[in-house]
Amino acid sequence: MLLRPKMPDAAPVSIAQTPTRPAEHHHAPVICSCAHTPMASAGRPLSPLVGRGVSAVAAVLVVGVVLTALLATVAITAVSVSIAALVLRSLLNSAHKR
After folding, report:
1. Is 46 helix (H, G, I), strand (E, B) or coil?
2. Which of 22, 79, 83, 90 lies 20 to 30 angstroms, CA to CA, from 12?
3. Which pTM was predicted?
4. Dist CA 98 CA 92 (whole Å)
5. Is 77 among the domain residues?
C-alpha cells in the first residue's frame, strides 16, 4: 500500500551446505617448573542438573497458574460483593421511600 518496506536482495542460502570451520591453531604446551596437579572433577554428572532445570521451570509455571487462578477468584468475588451491595442499597432506599 502506501508504506511497504523493501527487503534487500540477498543470495539464497542452501540448507544443505555445511559450514566451514575456521582453521584451528595448535599451540605448543607451556612447560614450566611448577608441579601442576590435574583439576579434580566435581564427581557428579551434569544430567541431574539439567533435570533440575526442567523441574524448576515446571514448578514456576504451576505456581504462575495457581496465582493467576487466585487473582481471578478474588476479582470475581469483588465484583459479586459490589453487585450485592448495590442491590441491597437499592432495596433499602426503596423501603425508606414507602
Report:
1. coil
2. 22
3. 0.43
4. 10
5. yes
